[in-house]
Design a protein that fits this description.
single chain, Rossmann fold, six-stranded parallel sheet, phosphoglycolate phosphatase, PGP-like_dom2, HAD-like_sf, EC 3.1.3.18
């Protein structure tokens, strides 16, 4: 099959940076005690791929039992960014990423970043890591991943059955299923299991799709 496009999650798929975000969430909520800290960790690991702001709302509403204002959300987001940025900018690539991106670029197969990270932030990281040339578009929150993928499919006129989404979380799997694109799960050791029968890889390899 001739691929028309490849959609990429970012943390845990392009950069080995999931653990950086995990540490930041735990650190930010450690002051509320070990039970809250453990609940934050478990929710984060079970809900990879969703916006940090959705997670903050969940933590405040369900763990701290109090509402959170938009102003507080922004402050938390800024704190989170300051905690993770330097480490993310220095995180290693997932094995096979650069070779695969080079191959796709050489073959004229467009790639798109579809991340739960705020769009401005993930675009900055892509630029700083000198990855911009590989991606036709770099997209992030607040839009949900299924919205981003569906929008690109419609605007570009792609056949969903000829597109692939590489992700490391169940939310990525669900976004692929809802948008109709083929899903490949990347196993990075920190995420929950995908449904039985899911195509999974420990390193990025798409030669069977691009030959």
């Amino acid at each position: 099959m001739k691929l028309q496009a490849v959609f990429w999650d970012f943390d845990g798929v392009i950069l080995d940076s999931v653990h950086v975000k995990t540490k930041a969430f735990v650190r930010m909520f450690s002051k509320y005690g070990p039970k809250v800290e453990q609940a934050v960790l478990e929710y984060h690991l079970a809900n990879g791929g969703i916006s940090r702001f959705e997670k903050f709302r969940h933590y405040y509403n369900n763990l701290l039992n109090r509402p959170i204002s938009d102003a507080e959300l922004k402050l938390l987001g800024d704190e989170f960014s300051s905690l993770v940025m330097e480490e993310v900018l220095n995180a290693p690539f997932i094995p096979g990423v650069l070779t695969t991106l080079d191959d796709l670029w050489a073959r004229g197969i467009p790639s798109f970043v579809v991340s739960g990270t705020p769009e401005e932030e993930v675009r900055h990281i892509v630029k700083e890591r000198q990855l911009s040339r590989y991606f036709l578009e770099v997209c992030g929150s607040p839009r949900k991943k299924v919205e981003i993928i569906t929008d690109i499919l419609v605007r570009k006129g792609y056949d969903a059955s000829k597109c692939v989404f590489l992700g490391d979380a169940l939310t990525d799997y669900e976004a692929a299923r809802e948008s109709g694109v083929y899903f490949i799960g990347i196993i990075n050791g920190e995420t929950c299991s995908f449904p039985a029968g899911t195509h999974t890889l420990k390193s990025i390899e798409l030669k069977e799709w691009t030959c």
